[in-house]
Write a structure and sequence with these properties.
Belongs to the LOG family. Its EC number is 3.2.2.n1. It catalyses: N(6)-(dimethylallyl)adenosine 5'-phosphate + H2O = N(6)-dimethylallyladenine + D-ribose 5-phosphate; 9-ribosyl-trans-zeatin 5'-phosphate + H2O = trans-zeatin + D-ribose 5-phosphate. It is an enzyme of class 3 (hydrolase). With 194 residues, the chain is of the alpha/beta class. It has a single domain, classed as Rossmann fold (3-Layer(aba) Sandwich), CATH 3.40.50. The chain has nine helices and seven strands. It has helices at 16-32, 44-55, 66-70, 87-97, 108-122, 140-152, 157-162, 169-182, 190-193, and strands at residues 3-7, 35-38, 60-65, 80-84, 100-103, 130-133, 164-166. It has a seven-stranded parallel sheet with strand order 4-3-2-1-5-6-7, sandwiched between helices. Helix 1 (16-32) links the parallel strand 1 (3-7) and strand 2 (35-38).
C-alpha cells in the first residue's frame, strides 16, 4: 500500500478526540511510508491529518477544485496540490492516485465520498478496499443503519462485510491490506446495487 485516500471533515467537530485521531493517523501513515491523498483543505480534520503527516516527513497529495482554492481553502504547503474543475474530477483523481480508501470522522462530504468509492467497488469499477476507522464508535450508528438495509433486502450482506472496520489505525490497515491481497469481489446485481 503506497497511498491511501482519506475522507474526513473540514471542521474539527465538537470532540477534541477527533482532531487527536487525525493527527495520530497522519503521523502513523508517515512513519509507515504510506502517502496520503486527501481533499486539499487546510482547516479542520483535513488540515490536522495533512499537517501531522508533513511534520513527520510524509507525502501528502491534496486534490481540490479551483473554486475552493479561490475561497482560500487550499493547503498550499502539501507535497503536491492538484487543482481541478469539479468535485467529480476531484474524486476521480483521488481514486486514481490511491490504493485504498479510509473514512475518518466527517460530515456529508465524507459520507458522499466514501459511499461513492464503496459503490464503485461493489459494482466492479475498481478493486481497491474501503475502510472505516471506527475510533470511539464514531461510525457504529451508520454501520448499524446499513445493517438495516441488509435486513430490508436493499444491500447485500457481502457488500457490508466487504468494508474494513476497526477501532484503531493499525487494525484497519491490516484489514485493508488483507482485502488488497485477497481482492474479494462483492456480490453484484440488484440485491447489492441499490
Amino acid at each position: 500500500m503506497r497511498r491511501v485516500a482519506i475522507f474526513l471533515g473540514s471542521a474539527d467537530g465538537h470532540d477534541p478526540a477527533h482532531a487527536e485521531l487525525a493527527v495520530g493517523v497522519g503521523k502513523e501513515l508517515a512513519r509507515r511510508g504510506i502517502g496520503i491523498v486527501y481533499g486539499g483543505g487546510r482547516k479542520g480534520l483535513m488540515g490536522a491529518v495533512a499537517d501531522s503527516a508533513l511534520k513527520a516527513g510524509g507525502e501528502v497529495v491534496g486534490v481540490i477544485p479551483k473554486s475552493m482554492v479561490e475561497r482560500e481553502w487550499a493547503h498550499e504547503d502539501v507535497t503536491e496540490l492538484i487543482t481541478c474543475d469539479s468535485m467529480h474530477e476531484r474524486k476521480a483523481l483521488m481514486a486514481d492516485r490511491s490504493d485504498a480508501f479510509l473514512a475518518l470522522p466527517g460530515g456529508l462530504g465524507t459520507l458522499e465520498e466514501i459511499f461513492e468509492v464503496w459503490s464503485w467497488r461493489q459494482l466492479g469499477f475498481h478493486s481497491k478496499p474501503v475502510g472505516f476507522l471506527d475510533a470511539g464508535g464514531f461510525w457504529t450508528p451508520l454501520l448499524d443503519a446499513l445493517q438495516g438495509l441488509v435486513d430490508s433486502g436493499f444491500l447485500a450482506a457481502a457488500t457490508l462485510q466487504d468494508a474494513a472496520v476497526a477501532p484503531d489505525l493499525p487494525g484497519l490497515l491490516a484489514e485493508l491490506e488483507e482485502r488488497m491481497r485477497s481482492t474479494p469481489r462483492p456480490a453484484h446485481g440488484p440485491e447489492g446495487a441499490g
